[in-house]
Design a protein that fits this description.
Elements: H1 3-8, H2 14-19, E1 27-28, E2 31-32, E3 34-35, H3 46-59, H4 69-89, E4 97-100, H5 103-118, E5 124-128, H6 137-146, E6 149-153, H7 166-169, E7 174-180, H8 192-201, E8 205-209, H9 221-224, E9 228-232, E10 243-247, H10 249-254, E11 265-268, E12 273-275, H11 289-305, H12 307-326, E13 331-333, E14 343-348, H13 353-362, E15 365-366, E16 368-370, H14 375-381, E17 386-390, H15 397-414
Parallel strand pairs: 3-15, 5-6, 5-7, 7-8, 8-9
Antiparallel strand pairs: 1-2, 4-10, 9-10, 11-12, 13-14, 14-17, 16-17
Helix pairs in contact: 3-11, 4-11, 5-6, 12-15, 13-15
The structure holds pyridoxal-5'-phosphate.
The site of pyridoxal-5'-phosphate (PLP) has 13 residues, from helix 5.
Length: 416
């Protein structure tokens, strides 16, 4: 679809979108593939696959080093990808965009580079009960090393943060607030702008895990006012092995590098090393150049389609799916927050989530079963695992029907 065609109509042409994703057009176990595991990773449009292919076919070289033509082209493509990510997040400067492997690496970088020097014995890091392990374990590790305490903002039965507990937990010793924008296990969209503002008033550094938000909604880091924001390329229709950490420049200047090596230095001698300015200070070694090129193509694809329109489409899918699944007997929804992104998590009475996932796969429906790297959420609801359908920009109402038909079959086979 061209920009002009999109500008002329607000109709969401899901079939046109699907035509851009070659992988969707296949059968799995004799059924048309219904891919509802977008929360784990999303599929890639041809524009992304072609951009990576074209980079390797025509431009491949190392960046920031050579004077020859291919080196210049590779460097230009890599730095253009940075600018694309800046636009995507509405960061003030492209120098605030650091390329990393993904959200996990981004959070570890902040924990090591920013939090560790900030934390003294008795200081506190505040996270929430709905965090992915990527936004728990790095903080636990740093707290242990620094003698700091990890505090946890709880969630209620619906899967919403208990905001009334925030002031009690964010005290004089709290240095960091790290929370997810959207929960991967519950779908809850958190009021991050409000929490960032409240944390900033207390001088707390804010770190937002945007892994599940970036594919579903417009993000404006300047409007949010956060210090750090992280997302993964592979969840936003880009390749694996590339992601973005946004950091506010004053903090990035202070932050310590995570790894040392080539690319991140200004001057090296055996006596001392002077680091490069951000973002290069945090990008030691040869980066994932093809990944950045693919990510830029993905962000362009999503921006052209329009995240507002994508969000409206996915909300329609979520509402329809919620209604349809709720109508089935013996199914309990886990995560019924008032504001949700396209994630529907549930358990079927008497059936293990893995059995649900296996039977659904026989029907060609790809969903996720397990703890979703959010064991504390499972503990909160008293379950070992749940089943999750997560929607993307190419899913259809007919695919929701296939999900529901599959669940009926599960119930029939398992006698639930
Ligand atoms: N945070 C959330 C909310 C996630 O859903 C995920 C991945 O599922 C991550 C962090 C980790 O992302 P990655 O594995 O791409 O680093």
């Amino acid at each position: 679809m061209s920009d002009a065609a999109l500008a002329q109509t607000d109709v969401y042409d899901v079939e046109g979108v699907r035509a851009d994703f070659p992988i969707l057009h296949q059968e799995v176990n004799g059924h048309p593939l219904v891919y509802l595991d977008n929360g784990a990773t999303s599929q890639k449009p041809r524009a992304v696959i072609d951009a990576i292919g074209s980079y390797y076919l025509h431009d491949n070289s190392n960046v920031h080093r050579g004077v020859h033509t291919l080196a210049a082209r590779a460097t230009e493509s890599f730095e253009q990808a940075r600018t694309r990510a800046q636009t995507f997040l509405n960061a003030e400067s492209s120098k605030e965009i650091i390329f990393v492997r993904g959200t996990t690496e981004a959070i570890n970088l902040v924990a090591r580079g920013c939090a560790a020097p900030l934390l003294n014995t008795g200081d506190e890091v505040l996270i929430t009960e709905m965090e992915h392990h990527s936004n728990i374990v790095p903080w636990q590790m740093i707290c242990k090393e620094q003698g700091a305490q990890l505090r946890v903002l709880p969630i209620d039965e619906r899967g919403e943060l208990m905001l009334e507990k925030f002031d009690e937990l964010a005290g004089a010793r709290t240095r960091i607030l790290a929370l997810t924008h959207v929960s991967n296990a519950l779908g809850t969209i958190n009021p991050v702008a409000e929490l960032i503002a409240r944390a900033r008033d207390k001088g707390i550094v804010t770190v937002i895990d945007g892994a599940q938000a970036a594919p579903h909604m417009n993000i404006d880091v300047q409007a949010l006012g956060c210090d750090f924001y992280a997302f993964s390329g592979h969840k936003v229709y880009g390749p694996t092995g590339i992601g973005v950490l946004y950091g506010r420049m004053p903090l990035l200047r202070e932050m310590q590098p995570y790894e040392g090596g080539g690319e991140m230095i200004r001057k090296v001698s055996f006596e001392e090393t002077l680091y490069a300015e951000p973002p290069h200070k945090f990008e030691a070694g040869t980066p994932n150049i093809a990944g950045a090129v693919g990510l830029a193509a993905a962000l362009e694809y999503v921006d052209t389609l329009g995240l507002d329109r994508i969000a409206r489409h996915e909300q329609a899918l979520l509402e329809y799916a919620t209604r349809s699944v709720k109508a089935l007997d013996g199914i309990r929804l886990i995560g019924t927050a008032r504001a949700k992104a396209g994630i529907l998590t549930f358990i079927i009475d008497g059936v293990h989530a893995h059995d649900v996932g296996t039977i659904m796969d026989h029907e060609g429906v790809a969903i996720r079963a397990g703890h979703h790297c959010a064991m504390p959420v499972m503990k909160k609801y008293g379950v070992a695992a749940t089943t999750r359908a997560s929607f993307g920009l190419y899913n259809t109402l007919q695919e929701v029907d296939a999900l529901v038909a599959g669940l009926r079959k599960v119930k029939e086979i398992m006698g639930a």
